[in-house]
Amino acid sequence: MTEKTPDTAQPAQTPENTPAPKPLTEPARRKPGATLGLALGGGVARGWAHIGAVRRLEELGVRPDIIAGTSVGALVGGFWRTGRLDALEEWALSLSPARMLSYVDVVLNGSGLMGGKRLERALLQHLPPTNIEDMKDEFVAVTAELATGHEVWLRDGDLADALQAAYALPGIFPPRAVNGRWLIDGALVNPLPVSACRALGARAVIAIGLHADAFSLGVAERKARFNEDHMKEGSASAKTAPGADKRMLRRLFHAGANAPGVGTVMVASFNILMDRITRSRLAGDPPDVLVTPHVGHIGLLDFDKAEELIALGRKAIDEMRPQIESALEYLG
């Protein structure tokens, strides 16, 4: 008996013809009702890591049916859902300390230290008019009502209004009026909205949190880092500011020679609050996969670190790829 020879010889595998890794999942193969949710947490400037994370998920073929975002997580999720993530990434990568200052409109008689109008113009320039209910897939921006403290989910209406309400950090940006309610940053009540994904029907939830390593340093090192950061924030911004803005920024970040200013105190306090609430919420309603980019060494106001943060977001997804694959097998 002779061995049958193949009709065509198989070419040797080389870097040029080696097939790309297969995607983790094909949404069309999921069981009926097997819904995947993605929760994107708040984290101010650290939120640029979300861009790299969702990019990597997309490359792996992971397309969530539901996205729930808080604060900057809502911003990235909303741009991704509308197909405008490229525009947001390009804008984030263009930010420098000097350009960031151009979006700072300090006010003394408003509801926040910044009026937010310059940032709103930049947002509208990159985001076409969109109603949330007209988007193809489910999206919710998590906010909080200022008068009652209630958690408010925005699932319809103007997307730009919803995003601005979601990142309206108290004391920094003024609250946003939506449907007769004054709304503020949702991170005050739900920094990582796994619960929103569950409530909307997600059978499996991937959550991307930005505070897992915010307080992982030793006490002495955290103190040193805080002192370094608050000095850097005041001096770096003031160098590029015109006269009046320079004096204002110094007052915001420096109360005195050895004390942080009100701006630094507010941002650092917000960091503590998000960390503690996130731990509490996740203890009662954990996600199926928790992705935690290692971004604790980057300050909450370091918006000019987009390139590093985006890379860290991608890396975090790759590190959790086996867990993501297991969650998707459950849906299959």
Question: Can you lay out the helices and strands and say which pair or pack?
Answer:
Blueprint: E1 36-40, H1 48-59, E2 66-70, H2 72-81, H3 85-94, H4 97-101, H5 117-126, E3 138-145, E4 151-154, H6 159-166, E5 176-178, E6 181-185, H7 194-199, E7 204-208, H8 219-239, H9 243-253, E8 254-256, E9 259-260, H10 262-284, E10 289-291, H11 306-319, H12 321-331
Parallel strand pairs: 1-2, 1-7, 2-3, 7-10
Antiparallel strand pairs: 3-4, 3-6, 5-6, 8-9
Outline the structure in words.
Helix 1 packs across helix 11 (306-319), helix 2 (72-81) packs across helix 3 and helix 8 packs antiparallel against helix 9. The chain is globular. By secondary structure, it is α/β, with parallel strands linked by helices. The protein is built from twelve helices and ten strands. The strands form two sheets. Strands 1, 2, 3, 4, 5, 6, 7 and 10 form an eight-stranded mixed beta sheet that branches. A two-stranded antiparallel sheet has the order 8-9.
